[in-house]
Amino acid sequence: MRIGIISGVLGLIVALPVHAQKSDSIKSMLLPDVVVTETYQQRQAKKSALTVDVADQDFLRKHFTGNFMQAMENIPGVQAMDIGSGFSKPMIRGMGFNRIAVLENGIKQEGQQWGADHGLELDAFNIGAVNVLKGPSSLLYGSDAMGGVIDVVPPAVPMDNRVFGDVTLLGKSVNGTVGGSLMLGIKKNAWYSHIRYSEQHFGDYHIPTDSIVYLTQRIPIYGRKLKNTAGIERNIGLFTQYQRRAYRANFSVSNVYQKTGFFPGAHGIPDASRVEDDGDSRNIELPYSKVNHLKVTIHQQYAWEKLILSGDLGFQNNHREEWSAFHTHYGSQPAPEKDPDKELAFNLNTFSASVKARFIGSSSWEHTLGWDGQHQRNDIAGYSFLLPEYHRSTTGMLWLTTYRPNNVLSVSGGARYDYGYINISSHEDVYLADYLQKQGYTQEQIDLYKWNSHQVKKHYGDYSLSLGLVWTPSDKHLVKVNIGRSFRLPGANELAANGVHHGTFRHEQGDANLKSEQGWQLDASYHLKYRRISFSVSPFVSWFSNYIFLRPTGEWSVLPHAGQIYRYTGAEALFAGTEATVDVDFLRNFNYRISAEYVYTYNCDEHIPLSFSPPPVMRNTLTWQKNRYMLYAEWQSIARQNRVDRNEDRTAGANLFHLGGSLNIPIGGNNEIEITLTARNIFNTRYYNHLSFYRKVEIPEPGRNFQILIKVPFKKLLKRKINFISQWLAFWQQLLSCFPLVIMMTPAIRSNL
């Protein structure tokens, strides 16, 4: 039995024991309060209209790549927007960026979510489980959750007193990844603590093409390696918890550091020397980006018979820098005296707090009252400009009521009101004004461009509603319907961005007159479980009166080498689609799963699709599992995407084939070495991800990839009569004795150490 900490439907964080499930188990279930057995968990799922797809340890192990979102996109309805060098952004049902809230330890991850080329600063090795809530979640999580929630659950807390840990090693062929993670922990009575350090190094990506096209110019790809796409990632995290009777408190601090190179063609047309193979696939040259994300969280909870009170505090610092050799097309702009190659820098500080109270009125009624607030300040630097300085404050209150007259029917409803304030600083580019004047532009055009941003002070207030119904006529059938009104406050980028975004190959402009994003969303689901067959289907439809998106204008920017202008625009929009899954167990050890997803987008104002709409995807997976062995084969079919926005290219479909397997080797003391081998895109198929900005310069997705993942766990029970220090010494002796075995089993990794 595993113990996980999962935030509930009511926004509370509680202990969740979960029975071990078979490989690749993703089950749609309620986020419960306190779960003792899987049977109880299933019963709780029938009582709430809010559902979540749970990716457990087996699922994460099977799909682990070192990239968090690449694993999550194996869940129907979840997409990963690929940004090139091993990083991805989450999308749910075609919605991404600030519409998807990512939670870790109960606190929303606050980085540069607006950037399509900015990934999630999370340690992929430090995840116990993931809860993916699809659909409108603004009622519980605020403005930035109108598209859904990805809740990252920390590793499980042991039941008994012990010292424990694990060593994990990762190797990938497509970019020569060498990675590893070390975790050490202790559970002693009411106290629990663990610390983890992870590191990954990867080289230039192999892609199945010899050339790409950028701004009509063909650029060679030497050795089929995408030069300067190497990178490094270092993560460290500490988690401590105290729990006694009705009180629980935990504290966590983590720091994620990432540095990755950009293909030279991402910053203007490169000359031949910049794309030629320099013989070193792991060096990181200009241009590159680096980001450091510091997060501190505190959670406390008190539980009485009729009342559960919880509170959270969080602080985050996200510091991102984009480095590129100083270049100017304005003539009069001098290179900065300090850090002349620092093109862009953003320093975002976020303070957050929340309080929730759950009242249990009777066996049929439950009520939740909650408040949360957040304050952000963003500072900028660098010789270029994309986003202005700003500070932003939001606060909101919610009420949620659930009525369960019996075990067949459940009704829930709630309301929330949020208020937000944003103050954006002005920014004038005198060098650009001088350049435009010399180029002969009119004064009107000069005045339009020289102000990179104007001062903007805006107040926003809006509300969310939710009403859900659950009907369980029998143990085999489950029907859920949920309708809600959600909204999102516009971000600083949507209001005031104005500059070249090299990572996405476009000039992006904001609009200070944008109003809050508003919409109505309807979700329904039907689940059938009959003997060894299970079936689920989840249709949805969403309508927005003011959906904000980057619209390709077809206008060519006056900024040199800037390309097309993309402007943030509000429009009436429609999203519709469905996810469906069929699972069949047969011949005792075999499982066949087929899943499919489809998203339809429509710009009602212009009668065309929205840009970057996900194509239909179908997955066929055959899995054999017996005792400590598991093998699987997967056929992933990606449909052609012909429904594109104006000035957007179509993307051809592709068929990809993957193989994988795992083996557990007992090593004594109830410990097992876990070995996972995978082969992705085994036929080295050349294809383009419609959600990748790199497709616009004809850069295909990485080719064939072989991966090995080895995990060696350690644990030692603590006994009262044995000295604690001797236990730690014995633990370290056991830890060090296993290293020769791990190194011997991974010669490819050993050669790179």
Question: What is the compact description of this entry?
Answer:
By secondary structure, this protein is mostly beta strands.
SSE topology sketch:
Elements: E1 2-7, E2 13-18, E3 26-29, H1 38-45, E4 52-55, H2 57-63, H3 68-72, E5 78-82, E6 88-92, E7 95-96, E8 100-104, E9 107-108, E10 129-134, H4 138-141, E11 148-153, E12 162-172, E13 177-188, E14 191-202, E15 205-206, E16 211-214, E17 217-220, E18 225-226, E19 231-244, E20 247-261, H5 272-275, E21 288-303, E22 307-323, E23 342-360, E24 365-381, E25 390-403, E26 409-424, E27 427-428, H6 430-438, H7 443-450, E28 451-453, E29 456-474, E30 477-488, H8 492-496, E31 498-501, E32 506-509, E33 517-530, E34 533-556, E35 564-586, E36 590-603, E37 617-626, E38 629-638, E39 654-668, E40 671-680, E41 705-717, H9 724-745, H10 747-750
Helix pairs in contact: 6-7
